[in-house]
Design goal:
By secondary structure, this protein is of the alpha+beta class. It has 4 helices and 11 strands. Strand 9 and strand 10 form a beta hairpin.
Length: 185
């Protein structure tokens, strides 16, 4: 699905590395409809959000990777070398559309600056449940709600700060009304 006037990659072409084909179509731009149920103060509200994804959700530079391996795994978009495809991030990126679809029922947290994130427990190569952090921005673009998934990764070291909770419905409502979503003090 193509969206006019969206300033982000809308279609991620596949890549072949050796005998493995990496299909990124699950990360193509998409429209997600959220329905916030009525409560005592408000009637039901529907929000259509255009979702785009950064290559950071499937690619990562690993310092110990030699130059030949970096070049072999490098993802190119319109001739520009971005980052090497990272197998764990790629596999976990397949979960992103479902995570994004379920944001109304998930605990969101304030991230750095104007971003937010959610944490999903996933089983990875270690066979243990680990925190998969998905960072996103919400904004209006050409009068439409937009969410850009900036990065997503398994955090294996502890976070430095305690993040403040926020409901996704609040993020939607304030963004649509052009109000700043302030981080609590």
């Amino acid at each position: 699905m193509a969206f006019n006037n969206v300033e982000a990659v809308q279609h991620w072409p596949p890549k072949r590395i050796d005998d493995k084909r990496y299909d990124f179509s699950h990360l193509n731009a998409q429209r997600v409809s959220y329905s916030v149920p009525a409560n005592k103060d408000n009637s039901e509200k529907k929000y259509d959000v255009i979702i785009t994804y950064s290559y950071h959700v499937f690619a990562k530079t690993i310092p110990e990777m030699d130059d030949a391996e970096k070049q072999r795994r490098m993802y190119h978009y319109h001739g520009e070398a971005l980052r090497p495809v990272h197998d764990e991030r790629y596999e976990l990126s397949k979960k992103l559309p479902n995570i994004i679809q379920d944001l109304l029922t998930t605990k969101c947290l304030h991230g750095a600056k104007d971003s937010f994130f959610v944490v999903e427990l996933v089983n990875t190569a270690t066979k243990q449940a680990e925190p998969y952090e998905v960072y996103f921005e919400m904004f209006k673009e050409m009068k439409k709600l937009r969410m850009h998934i900036k990065t997503a990764f398994v955090r294996r070291e502890r976070s430095q700060e305690k993040a403040q909770k926020i409901q996704f419905a609040t993020i939607l409502k304030k963004t649509l009304a052009n109000q700043k979503v302030k981080r609590p003090k």
